[in-house]
Amino acid sequence: MSAPPAVEDDARIVAASLGEPERFTGVYDRHYTAVYRYVSGRLGQQAADDVAAETFLIAFRRRADFDPGRGAVRAWLFGIATRLVAQHHRAEERHYRALARVGVDRPHGGDEDRVVAAVDARTVQPRLAAALRGLSSKERDVVLLVALADLGHEEIATALGIPYGTVGSRLNRARGKLRAALSTATEGQ
Amino acid sequence: MDEIRMVRDGYGSPRPPTKDETATARMQLAALIAAERTDTAPAPAPAPAPRRRLFGGWRLKLGVGLLAAGTAAAAVIVVTGQDDGPSGRTTPPVAMGEGDFTQVAAKAELAPTGKYWASDEISGALYVIRPKSGPYAIFGAQSEFHTSTTTGEKGGTTYNTRDLPARPATPEDAAAWKRAGSPSSFKVWSNDHYWTYTTKAGSWGEGESDAVKDGKFYGPGGTLLTKDDFATLPTDPSALAKAFFSYEGWGGHPVAPFLKEKFKVKPGMKNMTPRMKLVETGRALRNMPLPPKVRAGLMRALAAQPGIQTVKGAVDPAGRKGIALAIAPERITRTAEYGTPKAEQGAFSERTELVFDPKTGELLAEQTVLTTPGGAYAQLKPGAVLNYWILRQAGWTDTKPKPPAQLPS
User: Fold this and answer.
1) In this predicted structure, what is the pLDDT of residue B214?
2) Average pLDDT for runs of 10 along chain B of length 409
3) What DSSP letter does each residue of A111-173 carry, written as one string?
4) B32 and A61 in contact by Cβ < 8 A?
5) Alpha carbons A92 and A21: distance in angstroms, whole number
6) Which of B4, B12, B33 sits opposite A143 (nearest CB)?
7) Which residue in B has a C-alpha nearest to residue A82's C-alpha?
8) For residues B6 and A128, is the Cβ–Cβ distance under 8 A?
9) Which of residues 372-391 of B touch A (CB under 8 A)?
10) pTM for the full model?
11) Whether B77 and A103 lie within 8 Å, measured CB to CB
């Protein structure tokens, strides 16, 4: 999950892709795996498949809007992915279980791909899942961009379009909540 | 305690994508790129457009939402396979010959065209409320989405959305709701948490416009197509089935030979299930400006697919009656796994369908209806609509479209 080093090249590729769209596959090749793993961590593998792909389709369509002065391509991509993840949860509420849809389509997914809130229940202990669920969605975004995508504060500020200072304050608040929730759970055992 | 580390350890290391997943995603991107290359429109202006937000436009979100919704359901649902057949209070789907539906499809050929494309849709879901005075069902999570597109060189698309009030689902439910004191808010179980819906309507927002699409529309396979591009789609059902129900043709746009080679595209690489075909057809009929003959052809194409049945006497949540194309009922079991309360646990069967107006051939709704009551829906009758997208309007018009002020009845 380490950051691809050539940040400047990324921006140049995006700029070049305006005239030569094929160049954009270079952005894909560099970042797809990292974006996939981040999304997969948050939503489970089944959703990661679609959401990670959609991230790059959106990025491609919106590449004219990319402003290198505002931060790196990587942060921009994770911002798009994070918004898609958020949309996922809104859809969850709206559509409740409409959707045996994917579940039915992919019976092989079974337990492996089931999703609880933002958390893959298979890999996360229930108390951690509960602690994460206690965070606001904004706090969760910040925590998981650090924990799963290794983004720095500045990158997160770019990704989420929030001030640098806000990243730190959200992270602190989230840490406090997690600490409280996790220590209670541990003592209770 | 390092909380971040605990979170990271807790998640473990998400596995990287498989080769197959990587190739599929890359192909989708390549197809989008190829579509842009073959587009006669000029490439995006090199000067960066004013940067307002990374992305806006709920249609995009909507598309993803639908996708997403599918996965979300996995949270609480264990699908145990297709319904074994009628047992207890199951509605027998009234099978019709394919010929009967063909007449409905023929009506779709007569739809008018115009300067603007507009659609107005409502999504929502059914929830059961269980007060001491007796249970009743409401439609909640109701939102209305308005989209209008002006085609042509100076064209563009605007989106708008508002929340709609929650309401009792049927007259019987309304009576039970009154007995409960006509509450104006409803606490419901949603997936893995409680959520409250109210009888208050939201107002339309300011709307968002999409600067990227230039009066174009999303077509199959993530393509951006002009109105005229849609006119080049075939009208023959088997050709449309090929374009929409396989990844072979990328929605009628053949894969460029170099891409075929590069990504080893094989015909039928990803076969669609009846459900995927039905959902894809619904998406196309709701959101794509298909010429009437293409619409009709696509309806015929879906009707002819294995695993798709015709159902008479379908009713949507707006009370409109129609003929539906449906997939076989599926058995759903909800367990206590995610904290689901007792009353919401248990098994039931449901069927997903597209409902058409038999007089005009228009799509009325995409919905999931209860076929065998049980679990959370034990008291409901077969035919109750559990989840839905209703179309208030979708089509061409000559007057500039505006979101309707009036609430849907």
Assistant:
1) 66
2) 77 74 79 63 33 28 31 31 38 47 68 78 90 94 85 78 91 96 90 78 76 64 68 84 64 42 44 77 85 91 94 93 94 76 90 93 93 94 92 86 87
3) GGG--BTTB-TTTS-HHHHHHHHTS-HHHHHHHHHHHTT---HHHHHHHHT--HHHHHHHHHH
4) yes
5) 34
6) B4
7) B54
8) yes
9) 386-387
10) 0.56
11) yes
**Shortest alpha-carbon distance between residue A186 and chain B (Å):** 12
User: Considering its fold, how many domains does chain A have in total?
Assistant: 1
Residue A1 placed within a domain:
no
What's the longest Cα–Cα distance across chain A? Answer: 60
- Closest C-alpha to A107, from B330, B279, B307, B374: B330
| pLDDT at residue A134 greater than cutoff 90 | no
How close A6 gets to chain B, by Cα (Å)?
A: 21
Say whether residue B10 is in contact with chain A using an 8 A CB cutoff: yes
d(CA B360, CA A85): 39
Q: What is the pLDDT of residues A48-94, one digit of tens each?
A: 778 898 899 889 988 887 877 777 899 999 999 998 887 766 433 33
pLDDT value at residue A25: 85
Domain residue ranges of chain B, discontinuous segments joined by +: 30-39+57-396
Alpha-carbon torsion, ordered B174, B176, B177, B182, to 10 deg: 110
Q: Does B28 touch chain A (CB under 8 A)?
A: yes
Residue A154 lies in a domain: yes
Question: Nearest to residue A159, comparing CAs of A141, A174, A136, A140?
Answer: A141
Which chain B residue is nearest to residue A110, measuring alpha carbons?
Answer: B78
Answer yes or no: do B143 and A94 touch at CB < 8 A: yes
Name the residue range of residue A75's domain. 7-187
- B37 vs A21, A146, A178: nearest CB: A21
Measured in Å, how far apart are chain A's first and last C-alpha atoms?
A: 33
Specify the pLDDT at position B267. 45
Closest CA to B290 of B330, B253, B338, B240: B240
Can you list the positions of beta strands (E) in B40-151?
A: 78-82, 116-129, 136-150
The 8-class DSSP code of residue B154 comes to T
**Confidence at residue B54, expressed as pLDDT on a 0 to 100 scale:** 26
Return the pLDDT at B353.
95
Kindly determine whether residue B72 and residue A99, on different chains, have CB atoms separated by under 8 Å: yes
Distance CA A15, CA A152 (A): 24
DSSP 8-state symbol, B377: G
Which of B44, B124, B192 has its CB closest to that of A117? B192
Exposure string for B231-268, b = 16+ CB within 10 A, e = fewer: eebbbebeebbbbbbbbebbbbbebbeebeeebebeee
> For all residues of chain A together, what is the average pLDDT?
71
Specify whether the CB–CB gap between A131 and A50 falls below 8 A: no
Count CB atoms within 10 A of the CB of residue B342: 7
Rounded to whole angstroms, how far apart are CA atoms B156 and B149? 6
Q: Per the CB < 8 Å rule, is B141 touching A63?
A: no
Distance CA B158, CA B402 (A): 10
Instruction: Give whole-number Cα distances, B130 to B85, B127, B135, B208, B377, in Å.
Output: 29, 10, 4, 39, 11
